[in-house]
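Dear U.,

Please find below the material for section 3 of the report. The protein was modelled together with adenosine-5'-diphosphate; I have listed the sequence and SMILES used, followed by the predicted complex structure.
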Amino acid sequence: MTSPLLEIRGLSVEYRRRRTVSLAVDDVSLDVSPGEAVGVVGESGSGKTTITRAILGLTAIRSGEVLFDGHDVTSLDFAGRRRLYRQAQLVFQDPYSSLNPSRTIGRTLAEPLRAYGERDAGLVRTRVREMLERVQLPDGTADRYPRELSGGQRQRVAIARALMLSPRLVILDEPLSALDLSAQAQVLNLLRELQAIAGLSYLFISHDLEVVRYLCDRVVVMYAGRVMETGPAGQVSGQSAHPYTHMLHQASPSPDPRSQRRRHATTAAPPLRDPARHQAGGERCNYAPRCPFAISRCWTERPVRRADEGQGEVACHRFPQWRDEIRLAADAAGPPWAPPSPRADLEADLEAVVLEPGHRDGIEGALHGEDR
Ligand SMILES: Nc1ncnc2c1ncn2[C@@H]1O[C@H](COP(=O)(O)OP(=O)(O)O)[C@@H](O)[C@H]1O
Ligand SMILES: [Mg+2]
């Protein structure tokens, strides 16, 4: 068992607005091992970006620890932070505002190398060319400006820039959100390939559970600053242990209309609202105000994380009983709707029409492709 590259222990971050103090991140623990892709999933306002800011020392923390390669990064001086940034890089949501519009792509990509002391212009050019190739952009992209590129191309540039210093960890904060669907799929595939080639670690932040499942080994599900559930990606998405994760799973679009319809029949969750409103924290489950399975205990006692039935952990008083309630609701909604197969249609027609026995055999023979 290798020791984690990134270790977050009991992290809490608070924001003060006038006289109110709110916990944007409340006792969050997670780790990322070398070569591992860990997803953090949750709706807007759940504290995901605050975690990335805390990792990079960009926000003061209230309590807890953030260790990178075993070293505390929450109180780094300038030199220490410089060393950290060499190994941990960030890719933001909006590739347009994160790229300098007055610089060519070549200059933007060269900048990290220069900032870390590389003076050999020929070598810098070679590295830029190699990196463009790696993110599947044409050579000539180096001479272009961000405004001349599509959103997907710009995000590739942002990824290339993050990789210029050969970091060990890349933190991607909703890197697909600003892209259209086909660009999303392309960038997602690129991220997967890059990870396989370079043995990178990812902390991948998203509001879309299915995207996280595709890219990540493990998932951390957050709601209103707290961890609801963690576990292997397939388990968290396929057999969610927390009702909130289940709801996220139902909410993410499915390409299959049948399973979409079935999901709707079994979704008991109320519509999405601003989780920040429920961020009061304290001695209750933060999800209780939205949870269709909440009981009085959920309002008075904060659930602790405990092992679920697989390799994950869940913070829910109602696990696993809430699943029985879902099952009952699904039974009440009837069997999942399925379009009748063409063959079943014909069968029904045969029943509906009174046919002489011989006639009927003839039609059935034709249906079965029998040669008569
Ligand atoms: N600078 C800030 N000042 C006050 N509150 C903030 C600030 N940044 C974020 N918050 C609050 O902290 C919570 C978490 O925000 P954030 O980490 O951005 O969530 P996410 O990235 O999951 O959307 C939200 O309720 C948000 O309103
Ligand atoms: Mg965010």
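For the text of the report, you could mention the following: The first strand starts at residue 6 and ends at 17.

Regards,
Y.
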